Amino acid sequence: MDGFVLKLKNYGADVEGTLERFLGDVDLYKKCLDDFLEDQTMCKLKEAVEAGDTHTAFLHSHALKGVAGNLGLTPLYERLIEEVEPLRTENAEDMMRLYLEVEKEYERLRQEVL
């Protein structure tokens, strides 16, 4: 088994479902994951949360949720769902706490997969 695939499985990713969407192309999966991890959306989300901007935080967390879902990054996707739903209604009550949970999961992904 490819080391990349094994790392993703150990992380908790839905590798089989994602590879089905990617027509079995592991190299494409790697490229898309690399692009996701290099993207600045997570930094922009942090800036929005720190500024108390629920609308912009919603846009960034919603975008991250979509990509995480398409990449089968289930643990991160689940944290993002928890963050997106309150932000959808501009509820800032737990915005920082939820962001910190997303950030922690994002860093765990980076540590386990890179």
Please tell me about this protein's structure.
This is HPt (Histidine-containing phosphotransfer) domain-containing protein. Residues 44-111 form the HPt domain. This protein has helices spanning 3-11, 15-21, 26-38, 41-51, 54-70, 74-88, 95-113. The chain has 114 residues and is mainly alpha-helical. The chain has one domain. The model has no long low-confidence stretch (mean pLDDT 96).
Q: Note the beta-strand portion.
A: under 5%
Question: Overall pLDDT, averaged?
Answer: 96
For the record, give the distance between the C-alpha atoms at the N and C termini, rounded to a whole number: 17 Å
Strand count, sense and barrel status of the largest sheet are: none
SSE sequence, one letter per element: HHHHHHH
Label the structural class.
mainly alpha
| Percentage of residues in helical conformation | over 70%
What is the count of DSSP helices, taking H or I runs of 4+ residues? 7
This entry's quaternary arrangement is: single chain
Number of domains: 1
Radius of gyration, CA atoms, in whole angstroms: 14 Å
Please state the overall shape, judged from the principal axes of the Cα atoms: elongated
Task: Tell me the number of strands.
Answer: 0
The parts where pLDDT drops under 50 for at least 5 residues are: none
Architecture blueprint of SSEs:
Layout: H1 3-11, H2 15-21, H3 26-38, H4 41-51, H5 54-70, H6 74-88, H7 95-113
Helix pairs in contact: 1-7, 4-5, 4-7, 5-6, 6-7
